[in-house]
Design goal:
heterodimer; A: 276 residues; Elongation Factor Tu (Ef-tu), domain 3; Rossmann fold; six-stranded antiparallel beta sheet; 6 helices; B: 340 residues; alpha+beta; eight-stranded mixed beta sheet; 11 helices
Chain lengths: 276, 340
């Protein structure tokens, strides 16, 4: 019988990295042959499930340039994610996808200076894009990454940021944490204010992901700095069941986040109801 | 065209049921409902069934896939089955149209194979509505109660039932049956009688012109949603009786020796429909009420060349406990026309 989108693939967890007190990154390969489950575009998502516990949409945090496996950085915040957090290596999971449009890494981003702005677990969907752009470095201009979290311990991918991103030419990393900490000698303060302080040229293409409150104030700041709406991208999340635009719950206006999104340009969002 | 005396209808059902499962509206204590035909069951004369015909293709619950879980290991079992051809007899024009609207959701890429299998297996015999009622407004959506679509169209007139095959599937169904040739004149007569009744119905000319994609934000921001949704109980009855509502949930059930993943109807009228761990984008009943009608009148048409996600069957008009319905919403937001 014909392939059915709602029937998942079998994956197996081959590595678990503890990122923060409530974020873990899971490495997944096909349970059948140990290879990567499927190819994806940065920003696309997949439905991950433990049968009997639940199924939910997560962004694929690894870059497509990684040919061996996929990674999911997942914050513990509900029933399924709590279960995922107590998994051990060797655990099978089901995965289906990839879903959504992804970021225009081969379109609108090409040749542009990119400004990534992330808060907390919001770095997860952007990590795929950042690593993709680093891999094809010659296709993009300067990369600025503004990333903030509640505390030092809450910075996701901290080792990768320090050891790889910060050391790369043409990549500027700007980290911030919400409150002072004795071991921290970097910037302290909220992401939106930090972005304003850094006074970026509004010719850059901005890519945002983080909690709604961070998005709201960062957007206001960027617009004040002169960034046009058409140069600002963000990725949205809603409750989803099917992932293929049929179950009816993740729409804003006539657009389904699972299928037409999750990546939207701000000028596109401006024409849609403010239900997100 | 072909015809047969109504007295021989049950013999005809027996003949069809010999090779294929046959479903038809039957009178029950709770009104007309589709049931599998067996000796003794007769075609209901009710205008329409309480539940719509969407159940045949989009059942209230269905198994999607099974899992065997052992320690850390999971096994996936594909439980889909090809099914077998079946006949739905006596589907009204509104419900036939609902299949086309659901096709645009379930058969668009990626195809829903569960739905597709059932759709391919079905042979639809529609039945013209001899007496459309006051709650009917299919005409507003360009649907003909007098000449419904389907693989076969049937008319009942003067003690006879007349059939016209519309598709190859329909011709194959009729070919082996003991029918007489003819009936054109009677079918034509039935058609004009039904059209004459339809014209007199109160809800045949709803103000739908403004419901277009370019007015999406105006409709969304219309302050009238507050008063329209004020008494909505959020019971979801409208979504369950609606032939075009197709929102669903996917859940897992632990059977004790495995996990059954199933799909079941859900309703955008319920709060947990869009509830997430941290937030709910449609927290108030106003937002949920608006979502349902915006979907039917603006969002779906924006994605499907202007087609509305309503067939005017009138089920929600007769079932809503607070008497709120899509007709009132259309009139309130679309601007009431002067009575003719």
């Amino acid at each position: 019988m014909q392939n059915e989108a709602l029937i998942p693939y079998l994956g197996v967890v081959t590595d678990i990295r503890v990122d923060t007190p409530d974020v873990k990154t899971f490495r997944v390969v096909s349970a059948a042959d140990g290879q990567k489950l499927f190819e994806h575009i940065p920003g696309q998502c997949a439905m991950v499930s433990i049968p009997g516990v639940g199924e939910a949409m997560f962004s694929i945090t690894s870059s497509p340039t990684n040919r061996e496996y996929m990674e999911f950085s997942i914050k513990k915040c509900g029933c399924l994610t709590s279960w995922l957090h107590q998994m051990e290596v060797g655990q099978y999971v089901t995965v289906r996808g990839p879903y959504g449009n992804g970021f225009p890494v081969e379109g609108a981003f090409k040749g542009k200076d990119l400004l990534f702005v992330a808060g907390g677990i919001g770095l997860a969907p952007l990590r795929s894009v950042i690593n993709y752009c680093r891999h094809y470095r010659e296709n993009y201009g300067t990369i600025d990454i503004v990333y903030g979290s509640r505390s030092m311990e809450d910075l996701v991918d901290y080792q990768e940021i320090l050891e790889e991103w910060s050391k790369e030419e043409g990549v500027n990393v700007h980290l911030t944490i919400d409150r002072e900490q004795p071991e921290w000698n970097g910037h302290v303060g909220f992401v939106p204010n930090f972005v304003t302080e850094l006074a970026f040229e509004p010719t850059k293409t901005a890519i945002l992901c983080g909690p709604p409150i961070m998005i709201k104030f960062t957007l206001a700041g960027l617009e004040q700095m002169g960034f046009p709406k058409s140069q600002i991208f963000t990725t949205l999340e809603f409750r989803m069941k099917c992932g293929i635009g049929k179950c009816g719950r993740c729409n804003i206006g006539n657009q389904y986040i699972c299928k037409d999104g999750p990546v939207f340009r701000l000028d596109q969002l401006a024409e849609l109801p403010d239900e997100y | 065209m072909k015809k047969i005396s109504l007295e021989k209808l049950n013999a005809l059902f027996a003949e069809i049921a010999e090779t294929k499962a046959l479903y038809l509206p039957v009178d029950t204590e709770t009104g007309a409902q589709y049931q599998k035909w067996e000796e003794g069951k007769t075609l209901s004369s009710a205008l329409n069934t309480v539940r719509s015909a969407k159940d045949f293709f989009f059942p209230q619950t269905e198994s999607l896939v099974h899992f065997k879980v052992e320690g850390k290991k999971i096994e996936i079992m594909d439980v889909r089955d090809e099914g077998a051809p079946f006949v739905i007899f006596g589907v009204r024009g509104c419900d036939v149209k609902s299949f086309e609207l659901l096709d645009r959701v379930f058969l668009q890429d990626p195809v829903d194979t569960y739905y597709q299998n059932r759709r391919n297996n079905a042979i639809i015999v529609s039945l013209a509505c001899s007496e459309p009622e006051e709650t009917c407004f299919c005409h507003s959506f360009g649907i003909s109660a007098a000449d419904p679509a389907g693989d076969v169209t049937a008319w009942i007139k003067d003690g006879e039932i007349i059939f016209r095959a519309n598709t190859e599937k329909g011709e194959q169904l009729l070919a082996p049956l003991p029918l007489e040739e003819g009936g054109e004149a009677k079918a034509e007569e039935a058609r004009s009688e039904i059209e004459a009744i339809t014209k007199k119905l109160p809800l045949q000319n709803l103000p739908l012109e403004k419901f277009k994609a370019e007015n999406l934000m105006d409709f969304f921001n219309d302050p009238k949603w507050a008063s329209l949704s004020q008494s909505c109980l959020g019971c979801g009855t409208c979504t369950f009786v609606c032939p075009t509502c197709h929102c669903f949930d996917i859940r897992d059930f632990d059977t004790g020796h495995g996990v059954q993943r199933f799909r079941c109807w859900d309703s955008c009228m319920y709060r947990d429909f869009s509830q997430m761990a941290a937030a709910n984008p449609r927290l108030s009943q106003l937002e949920r009420f608006r979502q349902r009608f915006m979907h039917k009148l603006v969002y779906y048409p924006a994605n499907h060349e202007g087609r509305f996600l309503c067939v005017g069957c009138g089920r929600c008009l007769s079932r809503c406990p607070i008497s709120m319905d899509i007709v009132k919403v259309i009139k309130e937001l679309g601007g009431e026309r002067d009575a003719k």
